[in-house]
Amino acid sequence: MSTLHVRDSTALQMLTSTLHVRVRTELQILTCTLHVRVSTELQTLTCDLHVRDSTEKKILTSTLHVRDSTALQILTSTLHVRASTALHILTSTLHVHDSTALQILTSTLHVRDSTTLQILTSTLHVRASTALHILTTTFHVRDSTALQILASTLHVRASTALQILTCTLHVRASTALHILKCTLHVRDSTALQILTCNLHVRASTALQILTCTLHVRDSTELHILKCTLHVSASTALQILTSTLHVRASTALQILTCTLHVRDSTALQILKCTHIKVYSTCTC
Fold it and tell me: According to the lineage, what is the superkingdom (predicted)?
């Protein structure tokens, strides 16, 4: 080799065609004898011998005992393979767990969380809920950030996102609602509607969550209760007094001022509903 000044690629080609040496043996010869760098030899292997990316990745790890992360870095930087393909090769060829593969992808290739989540769902066909679970567990991303990524990257509806958040991550309904409001900027009425429709929470519980967690005023919440959930005035008033412990006089005032019910009707509703009178307002 040194006497004839033959190029490494030609020498390697001669080695395989003439002596019929296996690919991995010739790769080992190339590194040990000619002291060529791993990246160069891998490039030589694909360009001259037309070996597939997945095969060369397997050869790289099994023959030369290169770590997965380094191999993946070489694969993307040297061969210019896309991150999604690299991740696919990593899971299918080397049988690495999805979470480990994803962790390698972000730490080694410095890919953003949103991109990794998108790659995870599109390339590996993982469900959105599982992807979100991996994102929070493996990368220790906060729930709010994970939910924001889920909604913006995967274009999941707010209701679905909230359902995933409570079912998969076991976050309490109140926290989930708080995250939904602060992160995704959903209105109170929409949040309450999502809470009752998707999570099947009772109207009274939903209303209690809305006032305690989000600190909405009593009059506003009663208005929301009537307009959004289509609860009748009497039921709304009953929920307001029994669940939130509002005094009867205040409840009556809210009923007439906020909902514009006539005084006589309001008083009749108050009498017919049999509302218990509470002295203090504690939520």
Answer: Eukaryota
